[in-house]
Amino acid sequence: MIGRLNHVAIAVPDLGAACAQYANTLGATVGPAQDEPDHGVTVVFIELPNTKIELLHPLGENSPIAGFLEKNPSGGIHHICYEVADIFEARDRLKASGARVLGNGEPRIGAHGKPVLFLHPKDFTGTLVELEQA
User: Fold this and answer.
1) Based on the number of CB atoms within 10 Å of its own CB, is 58 exposed (0-12), middle (13-18) or buried (19 or more)?
2) How many other β-carbons are positioned within 10 Å of the β-carbon of residue 116?
3) For burial by CB atoms within 10 Å, which of 22, 117, 123, 134 has the most?
4) CB of 9 within 8 A of CB of 72?
5) Are 122 and 102 in contact (CB under 8 A)?
């Protein structure tokens, strides 16, 4: 059901410093910052030959990333994202197997402009999983 790894998302307390580290220290291609108000984050994508890194920074007072950074002040891996061919088919299959889809269970448009869903970390060995329709 799942396809390729789309990205690994890392919550960062200082977006500028994290971008500089990836660009200057690691020599990566760093994209522009984009605000995603529906998700409460500012994101920057780091392009790699085989996948992406998504840097996440809080946007607004109710950002879920703010809570993550309170518990992890240095930042850290927030979630991993897998591609799926059909997000509704994937959702229905996962729910039928007992996996919990976060929110109201309906896909939302993610930072790539494609439908996404998040799966409860307790159902996936402590890892928050995002599914994105490819």
Assistant:
1) buried
2) 19
3) 117
4) no
5) no
- Average of per-residue pLDDT across 62-70: 94
Sketch out the chain's domains with CATH numbers: 2-133 (3.10.180.10)
pLDDT greater than 90 at residue 66: yes
In the chain, the N- to C-terminal Cα span, in Å, equals: 12
Contact 8, 80 (CB under 8 A): yes
Structure tokens at 83: 């591609």
**Per-residue pLDDT, 62:** 87
For residue 130, indicate whether it is catalytic: yes
Contact 84, 1 (CB under 8 A): yes
Question: Looking up tokens 């291609």, which residue turns up?
Answer: 29
Closest alpha carbon to 41 in 27, 31, 55, 28: 55
- Predicted structure pTM score: 0.93
Any idea which residue has 């789309």 for tokens? Answer: 6
